[in-house]
Amino acid sequence: MSSWFKRIKQGISTTTSEKKEAPDGLWHKCPNCKKTITVKDLKEHFYVCDKCNYHNRINSAEYFEIIFDNKQFEELFPNIYPTDFLGFKDLKPYADRLKDAQKKSGLKDAMTVGSGKVLGHDLVVACMDFNFIGGSMGSVVGEKIARSIDYCIIHKKPLMIISKSGGARMMESAFSLMQMAKTAAKLTQLANARLPYISLMTDPTTGGVTASYAMLGDLNIAEPGALIGFAGPRIIKETIKKDLPAGFQSAEFLLEHGFLDFIMDRKELKNKLAELLSLFKN
User: Fold this and answer.
1) Would you put residue 236 in left (φ > 0), alpha (ψ -120 to 50) or beta?
2) Strand 36-38 versus strand 27-29 pairing type
3) What is the pLDDT of residues 177-191, one digit of tens each?
């Protein structure tokens, strides 16, 4: 037998620096049906499982790629930063938590606003980013929505907000809760200007976001299977001391009970949006 096949010495002698790692992000396993596909294929299917239609969570960068023509848009209000008004501290100071979230996500806060065209129709999209402190609603989120509405009124453009949030940001306390009233008041101004507002709820849309701008759309729509509600199912069950119906707080349950206008599959999002915008125009 050739010496090439013989182990001359025992053990692994490769140093850590010489090891070749498989690149991250090559494969994706569906959390629902467990099918494994390449990330490239997943992206081509709009981050939706081609077997079970499970809609994976994505953030503003991916939504803007899907929605805007030629993936081109102008980012609005990019330089608004969150502030630790209260010197809040839980397991770690809020100021440190903000720095960590900004470093990990590459974002300044939990909302990004883009203005572009959808099959030729103007649209401003304010999209929440769940990878920034759970997409929580703080002062920056409220301010960006307010400024987006002012921008829409000045430029006569419709607005869409894509919600994906765990609710109000507790580290900002009352400053965070104030955004509920602020955004609702600004949306009244948008309505008075007779400009359409589309609310797209994605998984999850909960807490103060649901209790304010997420449910105030001229059209309230959602992605399939999205969890939408105010308090979580466990809290509700403990409060009312009753078992909840199957699929409670899913997009499908809300549609059946009249809280949504329709459910929109992400693969059809761009075409459906263009259709809606043309109807609003007419």
Assistant:
1) alpha
2) antiparallel
3) 999 999 999 999 999
